[in-house]
Amino acid sequence: MSAKLKIGMFFFGLLVLGKTVGQELPRTYKAPEFDVEWRKPTNHPDRIVLSYGEDPSTTASVTWRTTSEIDTAYAEIAIATAAPKFWRNAKTIKAGTTTFDAIEINEAEILANYHSVWFTDLKSDTTYAYRVGDGKRWSEWIQFKTAPKESKDKFSFLYVGDTQNFILELWSRLIRESYKKAPDAKFIVHAGDLVNNAHNEQQWQEWFDAGGWIHSSIGAFPIPGNHEYRNLSPETSERSLSVQWKHQFTLPENGPEGLEETAYYMDYGNMRIIGLNSNVDHEKQAEWVDHILSRTDKDWVIVTFHHPLFSASEGRDNKEWRELMKPIFDQYEVDLVLQGHDHSYARGRVSPKENVLDGVNMRDKTGTVYVVSVSGGKMYGLRKNAWEGYDAERDRAAENTQLFQVITIEDNKLSFESYTAVGALYDAFDLIKRADLPNEFIERDTEAIVERRFSNTIPYQDPLPKGAEESLLSKYPGFEITGVHFVNDTNFIGYKVRLERGEDREEISLDVNGKFLD
């Protein structure tokens, strides 16, 4: 920018600000900038992530990253004890190593080696310590505990919806608060959209930094969302799974052929949890999930995937996915479905498959309970007519709220609790499993804080000047304001406003007083 132009913009800014004396302009957010070096690997292990196998009582995996110079790596594992030299009983396992050459891939542009190990033949219900390295440079010793074998004992796990945006900035507080609330959680369900741009190294670095050592000590159970799929370059038309995904996660390969490590299941205690990839191959997964549901004897069945069967937010509907999967879930009486995608919160349920005895209050009986949640900082508005038109009833909802969920199972009882990023209980219910009867449903939302909407929380969109909204809607009848962003930089000071009416969209610029500039 030339000196004359800079001076001109300076005086323009003074002129604009002078016209708004007495009017408080919205605070503009200064997003962090990250140096390229920040996301690059070193010879020391980083991005250490723990996961479990199909049987978490005997198998676990660990994956980590180094520079491509480290072509040989190891993991060491021992039963942890209070004596500091427990490592005397450790065994050393050589890691499998893959080279991640993404130098030519847009937004990845990096070369690294990933290393992974499966720990097998572990003792159930036992605390282990492990470390990873190349024989000279080692991580700290990290502890985890295997699952009990064939147990109905109490255990908990965490579930989070979309991380996606403002990952290091805002998801950090959420995932750390979840650990404070449930430090004994056995694993974390990530219901897709862990990042915004599938192949973006900076965003994956944010995800690993935000969770820090939580990723390496509590098992990850991730499934991909639509934002884990993207073109490899502007010239390619086909969307591809994040190039990082299979390098950085080592997951059970018990899913449908061709969908390994994106659709899989795990049996923990008296629960089977199934992860589906709702982005691709729906028919193939329907056949597979029908097969594995017909062959489980677990008391509890939970399914997780990204695209909701019953959409929480306005303008979304996954009709084909719903019509394919819901009959299967109904047939096998799936207890709970955990979803993401809609950047809001909704919890509801379908009617039980079977008739119950006359005189029984049906509000106390339930079929599958469906939940949509969001953990990151991007927010959408709720569907205005709730779940009207769906074969389901919505019981609880939220807008503009970062949430995490703690799910606890003990014998025939499942307890679900949703918490805000500051640890307030937002939603809760219990399911009681009865032999040959639908689940008993116990509503606990009276224990929670008042329902949250855009109307009773800190504004998500920047507030417009007085009278500007009326002027916009008068000029554009039938439209709805769907986005307001206040800009204050050297090129523009004012408001960028998005209006929508069905498929029609208008992008409008207003000055600081709300007057039209277009």
Automatic annotation (TrEMBL):
Keywords, alphabetical: Signal
InterPro entries xref list: Calcineurin-like_PHP, Metallo-depent_PP-like, PAPs-like, PAPs_N, Purple_acid_Pase-like_N
Domain Purple acid phosphatase N-terminal: from-to ranges: 45-146
Domain named Calcineurin-like phosphoesterase: residues: 157-345
Keyword Lyase: no
A Pfam family assignment: Metallophos
Keyword Signal attached: yes
Top-level division of the source organism's lineage: Bacteria
PANTHER family (UniProt xref): ACID PHOSPHATASE RELATED (PTHR22953), PURPLE ACID PHOSPHATASE (PTHR22953:SF153)
Name assigned to this protein: Metallophosphoesterase family protein
Species for this entry: Flagellimonas aurea
